Amino acid sequence: MYELIKKDGRAKRGRFHTVHGTIETPVFMNVGTAAAIKGAVSTDDLRGIKTQVELSNTYHLHVRPGDEVVKKMGGLHKFMNWDKPILTDSGGFQVFSLAGLRKIKEEGVHFNSHIDGRKIFMGPEESMQIQSNLASTIAMAFDECPSSVADRVYMRDSVARTTRWLKRCKAEMDRLNTLQDTINPHQMLFGINQGGIYEDIRIEHAKQIVDLDLDGYAVGGLAVGESHEEMYRILDAVVPYLPEQKPTYLMGVGTPINILEAVDRGVDFFDCVYPSRNGRHGHVYTNHGKLNLFNAKYELDDRPIEEGCQCPACRSYSRGYIRHLLKAKEMLGMRLCVLHNLYFYNTMMEEIRAAIEAGEYQVYKKKKIEGMTSGK
């Protein structure tokens, strides 16, 4: 259940109650594709850096180790030792990103595993069954994720198919949640709005899926090649058609500035691989912009990544030492950068929530963006 606590303009401060605990929103979900955050980050680490929600990938866990294995191990929470909410994506994005390996039909998608080439079929029912085996808190509907530059005719047909698939997802999840051997009979379902950069198709689709009265709604198919301005234009157009009293999730976004702009447009759930991926390459986020710790100028820098930051890296280590670890290809260097970046994102979300509650979101957003783009 979603509880809207405060609005500041279109920005929402909410609370989402789940069987695995309450999520304070706006929230950034930390991405652990194969049931682990890349960069040697444990679930104990996640607790220490203010993580509220972990996100895992349905397709990757289906391929390896297999969702049946995870079910036999007691579900994803028990498997990875995480007692807070988990969201699983539907596998749709991965299936559609394997463009050369797949064939779409009305019943679902036939494709080849990227690991061993074996033939796999996934449709709405299969995606729901896999996610039920994983026993995540929130399951995402299986949708087609068309290219953002697909033509209007293809986009319309694709979105109509996604709507038909969503109805099948809902029916199958309702069925699975009644079975005796279902690990999490309270699993929630979020639907996904598609339509590329066509405002009218997006709005029409939003109206259709809202009628299904789901637990939450995502905006998908953005951050896949279109400009930031196009993304903001689509959010301006479609978010007002999604229910204010339900969570709105912008999938795969994004940079800190993307998040600040999307919160301003009524979005309250986010996920992105940027903080962990950039961290593994020595790129770290600060309130004064992004630093590349591989740069020679940090060789003798005895300051933390960011003064005043309370993350495990900044509390104990200098930029110079972390740079040395990265240059020496020591895993600890990657790990510290990932921990810092996730802490930075999670702390920014705390600040966002406080700013909305105080009715000062515009002031906060302006100051935060100015700091990050100042290049100091």
Automatic annotation (TrEMBL):
HAMAP family: Q_tRNA_Tgt. The lineage of its organism: Bacteria, Bacillati, Bacillota, Clostridia, Lachnospirales. GO terms for molecular function: metal ion binding; tRNA-guanosine(34) queuine transglycosylase activity. GO terms for cellular component: cytosol. The gene is tgt. The keyword Glycosyltransferase applies. It catalyses: 7-aminomethyl-7-carbaguanine + guanosine(34) in tRNA = 7-aminomethyl-7-carbaguanosine(34) in tRNA + guanine. It comes from Mediterraneibacter gnavus (strain CC55_001C). This is Queuine tRNA-ribosyltransferase. One of its GO terms (biological process) is tRNA queuosine(34) biosynthetic process. The keyword Zinc applies. Zn(2+) binds at C309, C311, C314, H340. Keywords: Glycosyltransferase, Metal-binding, Queuosine biosynthesis, Transferase, tRNA processing, Zinc. Its cofactor is Zn(2+).
